[in-house]
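Much of our argument rests on the idea that a fold can be written as discrete symbols. The record that follows shows the chain in one-letter code together with its fold in token form.
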Amino acid sequence: MERIMVVDDEKSMRDFLSIMLKKEGYTVSAAKDGTEAKRLVDADLVDLVVADIKMPETNGIELLEYIRQVSPETIVIMITAYASTETAIQALKLGAYDYISKPFNVDEIKIIIEKALEKKRLKEENIYLKQELQLRERQRFDNIVGKNKKMVAIYRLIEQIAPGDFLQFYTR
């Protein structure tokens, strides 16, 4: 189950988003400002953060920069009631996944969050599959010379009885 953090200084917005996301099946945490959100990010892994831009103390842009440094795999979606083109461009340049103006359509934010999390899942799966492929490639016998039937039988025997580390050591 994906973990989402809602960061907004408006309690009503924080509560609304938290309830909506919990109903969608996500594990949700909430923070009243960027400073509290930083502590939560440091304490626990979060898959996605929905953060207001304009907040006291640590604003959303500063929080975005912090998250990019300490947890670059965490997706950040920025929301704001004070939309401006320059703020949107700045947020996107700093690595925000999307920038949404308040008031927003509930179905729209649900779709944006689901697409962002799906992209994250696909990226993680891609990394895993590449690592598996590299591991399998290292365990092949392409570097050993000998293609006659007896050598092929020895290769197959080694594959069946040797542990992975043995194969990696002797096939480099």
